[in-house]
């Protein structure tokens, strides 16, 4: 979904509470210092307007959450929502997934959420998908032993592609469903896209992958 660029919002973003400064000198951040404690980190790549990660951070106070998003206009919307909540266990990282390795030391992340990632349906754009073999190798590096990827999407071809890449890269895959909301799952936290797609009757695909 395209949204109009908000130059003013983007300019304000770096000074908003909870938003991390993207400074090349800060690479491989000391996450324990950032959160003031040493807890498991759960990361959402492409968090959009933040509905999911804000709800997760409110629900799981013993986990530290990082929302990564490359659109600053979109992140500004999430940062505004965050201002109204008390969420000391959430930080927003305005950066591209390509930079993941630069921000997280090996084994630092316990879980990666990929929610409604851009499906890039054209074959010539396939390398941009967030679940290519190359990206999965990076996720494997930043994930701790026993680390997990939780993926949700409404796009069946993207889901099948992701499943294929995960298996090829040697991940164990479990809890696969092709209709999440009729699968009897409990405690599912909706993302913004999920709410929209589910209300128009679309099936939601979900899987977990284990390192
Ligand atoms: N997770 C949200 C938003 C899904 S839309 C939800 O489920 O509602 C996908 C989001 O991923 C967009 O906001 C897009 O800007 C972001 N995105 C796409 N590619 C990215 C990348 N390489 N790095 C960081 N964010 C990315």
Comma- or semicolon-separated keywords:
single chain, 211 residues, 8 helices, binds S-adenosyl-L-homocysteine
Strand content: 15-25%
Sheet of most strands: 7 strands, mixed
Number of E-state strands: 7
Number of domains: 1
CATH architecture designation: 3-Layer(aba) Sandwich
Could you name the CATH class?
Alpha Beta
Please work out how many helical segments DSSP would assign. 8
Oligomer: single chain
Share of helix, binned: 25-40%
For the largest sheet, list the strands in their spatial order: 3-2-1-4-5-7-6
CATH topology: Rossmann fold
- Gyration radius (Cα, Å) is 16 Å
Q: Give every kind of bound small molecule, once each.
A: S-adenosyl-L-homocysteine
**SSE class:** alpha/beta
Shape: globular
Distance between the termini: 31 Å
CATH superfamily: Vaccinia Virus protein VP39
Overall mean pLDDT score? 95
Segments where pLDDT lies below 50 for 5+ residues? Answer: none
Order of helices and strands: HHEHEHEHEHEHEHE
Protein architecture, described:
The protein is of the alpha/beta class. It has one domain (36-210): Vaccinia Virus protein VP39 (Rossmann fold, 3-Layer(aba) Sandwich). 32% of the residues lie in helices and 22% in strands. The protein has a seven-stranded mixed sheet with strand order 3-2-1-4-5-7-6, with helices on both faces. The longest helix has 13 residues, at 156-168. The mean pLDDT is 95. S-adenosyl-L-homocysteine binds next to strand 2 and helix 8. Residues 45-48, 68-71, 74, 96-97, 115-118, 191-194 line the site of S-adenosyl-L-homocysteine.
